Amino acid sequence: STMRLLPAVFFLLAPLPGLAAQAIIAQNAGLTTPAQVIDFGAGVLPNFTPVSNQFPGLTITHASYFTTGVSNNLVGGFLTNDFGAGLPNTLRIQFATPITDLSFVYHQISTQSPSVVRAVLQGVTVDSFSGTWNQSQPNNYFGFTNTILDTLEIDFVSDFNFDTLAIVDPAAARCDLHIGSGLAYGYATLGA
Fold first, then answer.
1. What φ, ψ does residue 156 adopt, rounded to 5°?
2. β-bridge partners, 10
3. Which helix (H) or strand (E) covers residue 141, if one does?
4. Residue 91: exposed, middle, or buried by beta-carbon count in 10 A (0-12, 13-18, 19+)?
5. H helix runs in 14-121, sequence order
6. Number of neighbours of residue 5 by Cβ within 10 angstroms
7. What is the residue-averaged pLDDT of the chain?
């Protein structure tokens, strides 16, 4: 029945004790063993094409596509500000299903004020961090580990570059059913 499945799903998605949520802030690399990496490809769309659902499993708002060569961890195509989208200046990436870990390359173009990065689950912020970074720093990987989220939001100033989205989702998690207990214990295979 549905009621029996709810505890199993909860335990599958709930982090285990000892696996604390952790932000990835200004690192030299992202997740080491992601289940999927989306690098947005080179020349996939014409430059400055508004992006919404062109990349399977993602719904993206306030971004457009741009292609460049390899530059400071950008690898061909990447997301940048869709200036026609107006305010608020928030990049929003919603995943088709919840994920447990993600990392990404982020270049903050304007350093007038901090960027705010949020992990969101069903409309509720579950973790966040903020800071002021720049476009040329080599330690430009950011993200979250041991954090269940279905949406990534980044409040940015003026413009940004976003690339190399690496994720771990519950499909990459393991679940053991202990016969007779009626409980399933799950944990994510973490790449950070």
1. -120, 165
2. none
3. strand 141-145
4. buried
5. none
6. 10
7. 83
Tens of pLDDT, residue by residue over 161-177, are 999 999 998 755 544 34
As a whole number of angstroms, the distance between CA 132 and CA 113 comes to 7
Task: Report the alpha-carbon distance of residue 15 to residue 160 in Å, rounded.
Answer: 31
Rounded to whole angstroms, the Cα distance separating 72 from 81 reads 18
CA distance 98 to 59: 13
pLDDT for 3: 44
Mean pLDDT calculated for residue range 104-130: 95
Residues 6+ apart with CB under 8 A from 8: 175, 177, 183, 184
> Is it the case that residue 2 has pLDDT exceeding 70?
no
Phi, psi of 12 (to 5 degrees): -65, -40
Give just the sign of the alpha carbon dihedral 128, 88, 139, 39: positive
Q: What Cα–Cα distance (Å) separates residue 91 from each residue in 40, 76, 154, 159, 184?
A: 15, 20, 5, 10, 36
Q: Are 101 and 190 in contact (CB under 8 A)?
A: yes
Q: Are 49 and 64 in contact (CB under 8 A)?
A: yes
The span from the CA of 140 to the CA of 134, in Å, is 9
Residue whose token pair is 């350093």: 111
Q: What is the pLDDT of residues 28-78, one digit of tens each?
A: 999 999 999 999 988 999 999 999 999 999 999 999 999 987 888 898 899
Determine the Cα–Cα distance for residues 27 and 10; give it in Å rounded to an integer.
31
How far, in Å, CA of 151 to CA of 118, rounded?
8
